[in-house]
Design brief:
Blueprint (H helix, E strand, L loop, with lengths): L1 H24 L2 E7 L2 E2 L3 E4 L2 E3 L1 H13 L1 E7 L2 H9 L5 E2 L7 H6 L32 E5 L3 H9 L6 E5 L2 H7 L1
Length: 173
């Protein structure tokens, strides 16, 4: 009888160790949200998500045994996906504003860029932000560029038109 108990205890211990080993070796799943529409950082080419952000997360996954799942959304929907737990992080050139820093954790910056005004070739009438009064300016909905422009345009003299994607606002030009 005692042998039977020893065998049962050993079997239970072994099965628990096997389950624990399976848990320990399973890759951590990380859902990364991005637009897939911000070249060269995240874009789709031949039906494949590519870009600097994708390469970076693929490498992070490799080095840390993470299983990376990419979830694409319009930029304006990324924070909603994060807040509802449908993604674990956003990787889409997110600007660190004071408002965002109060709500979210950020990694150290790895890219620094600025805001630019882009006009059609031959348009010499717009040389800076002051020249935008009375003009229509296309920006991505919810982007840092939209926020910057609205902060600058306190008098409401600029017609700020928002689009879900960069492609849409480029076509509108």
């Amino acid at each position: 009888m005692k042998n039977w108990i020893k065998v049962a205890v050993a079997a239970i211990a072994l099965s628990a160790a096997t389950v624990q080993a399976a848990v320990d070796t399973a890759a951590t799943e990380v859902k990364v949200g991005m637009s897939g529409r911000y070249f060269p950082f995240t874009f789709v080419k031949q039906d494949k998500l590519q870009g600097f952000e994708v390469d970076m997360w693929d490498e992070i996954g490799k080095r840390n045994d993470y299983k990376i799942e990419y979830v694409t959304s319009n930029f304006s929907g990324l924070f909603g996906l994060l807040e509802t737990g449908r993604i674990d992080t956003i990787s889409n050139q997110i600007t660190m504003t004071d408002e965002r820093k109060a709500k979210y954790l950020f990694a150290d910056p790895y890219v620094i860029d600025g805001a630019q005004i882009t006009v059609r070739t031959g348009n010499d009438s717009i040389k800076g932000v002051d020249d935008l009064a009375g003009k229509t300016v296309a920006v991505n909905l919810g982007s840092n560029f939209e926020q910057l422009l609205r902060q600058y345009d306190k008098d409401g003299k600029i017609n700020i038109k928002t689009y879900d994607t960069g492609i849409e606002h480029d076509v509108a030009l």
